[in-house]
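Recap from last week: sequence in, structure out.
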Amino acid sequence: MAASLDGVFPATLQEKVKNSKLLVVGAGGIGCEILKNLVLSGFPEIEIIDLDTIDLSNLNRQFLFHREHVGKSKSQVARESALQFNPDVKIKAYHDSIMATDYGVNFFKKFDVVLNALDNRAARNHVNRMCLNAEVPLIESGTAGYNGQVELIKKGLTQCYECTPKATQKSFPGCTIRNTPSEPIHCIVWAKHLFNQLFGETVDDEDISPDVADPEAKGEADAENTANDTEKLSDEKVPDDGNVVRVNTRQWAKDSNYDAETLFNKFFYDDIKYLLSMSNLWKSRKPPTPIKWDSVILKQDEADTSFARQYHKIWSLAECAAVFADCLKKLKLNLENIEQGDSLVWDKDDQPAMDFVAACANIRGYIFEIARKSRFEIKSMAGNIIPAIATTNAITAGVVVLHTFKVLQNQLDKCKSVYMRLRPNPRQQLLVPEKVLTAPNPNCYVCAAEPAIHLRIDTKRVHIKEFRDEVLIKTLNMVNPDVIVDAKGVVVISSEEGETECNENKLMSEMDIVDGVLLKCDDFFQNYELSIIIVHIDAERDEPLFEVIADPNQLKPKEEVKTPENENGKKDDVSDGPSTSKRSKVNEIVDDDDDDLCLIEDDDDHNVSKPTDKSATEEVTEATDKLQVKSPEKPIATKRKTSVVDGDITEILDSDEEDGPTQSKRTKRSEPDEKGVINID
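Predicted structure tokens:
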């Protein structure tokens, strides 16, 4: 196309484009726009990879897809649609995960530039590491509502994707979810956990029964005997009627033949009655009201079945009960149709699964007198949906291709990060560039010369399997790690199947991994090596079991760490490096199905908005709705240090710098806001 026409591009750029080979990772909202732009620009050889299939909800912004494509591979259909624009382009599509072992460092070395259009942090981290090892320029992009960003990642020149800490997924203590919910999101998380307990993959931290170990439920006399009481309760057998303490919720449900009345009375009457027996919980709270299946409320509130498809209507209690019963039948049948031992996976686009969560969340809301939500609102909250704006995707994709032109011409100094905003800044800029390229973080545990971290961890409570799965894979984003105790040369974890399986159920302390021990970790697939220095901690209940610290200065006692003061004389909470924690008994809302998710976080050095994968829908909604324009005569907006406060919302302030990017500032909310869902009709 454009590159084949003389005079459209400078001769040097035209030649570079004709001889280039690009990889596009992701075929969602941004990925489709990028592929279309590349094809029309005349890039001759493109490869695109995406694991997802096309959902009906994708069609309002992913314009390479149409209704007849629903259920088909995104990458394959994107290829076919793009070839209609320019049949001369060679496009190779992969319906696969970019994290699969087939796509190692040598695969990435084939390309001149890699263009990221992903929707989850794990894949972004993986591509980041692959491109660093292959020394291939990576152009990272993302959008969240009306906000967008594009940045270049080049080894040794710019910061990598993991140089700055990303905001953790919003989480809730297990005792709040199980005992004392106070917000709609608490009921929704409980309902998702109930789905997993009955039909999905069960997780110990996702128990939905009353939490008998909740310290708030204990009286002063009981507090001294909490440990003994918990041990006694754990030894009790399951009663014949399937009451509060039970071994296996799914087996009990199967034995009950998934009878709607039996399950309803168990979860919404028996368990609630048990909660009421924990009298200390209700000294300062309004107690819940148990509901029985055959209660007068249900008998008086009859309705036809047409309501089930009224997604914007808040269902009555009777309607919720009817949906609950109908979904149990459908999900039971789905579970019977899969292979023995397999589980169902909750998906917001699976109608019975979504209906089940909506009904259960609202029933629990009735019980605790919490505001109920429509099915549409619950879907947005349960799936962490941030509305994707087609124009934001299109503009962001355009900037990505402009950056690609600069990279091919080796004009890397001109590839400054660009941030898209809802309203113009004082210089009437909607696309605000950085002034300079952001240098690599010397304490980054990925791109530093000798990557190393300190790991604060309770070695007496964490098993080797948990250390591998939760720390190395989930938190540090390794794929197939090998771990050796440096001083002894003992192999603790091996990527070879079965070689160290005998170690999995041992505590770290039993393997002599204690305070001060140095571990050498290696991921052959990612060509990544990391030194881990163990710092033992004795974690309390509901406290983090571990914390990753990339900067040793963070290990200093709090009184030794000096923090700058803001203009009000208050000290800001400034973090010197990436820090990631994992809490025990904490329930997270995690769903990465949203397109091109990229949120805003603070940057202390340049007051620049950075990409993150924050999951709280309400924070993004508030960030979009509360955008303000500050006048140029108030330079304090660009000089103020940022501070982080739990439960805050992000307010985007316009910079009065001539070319300055968006600055994030956090302001505390005085009251909880339940309007955390945006209507995207």
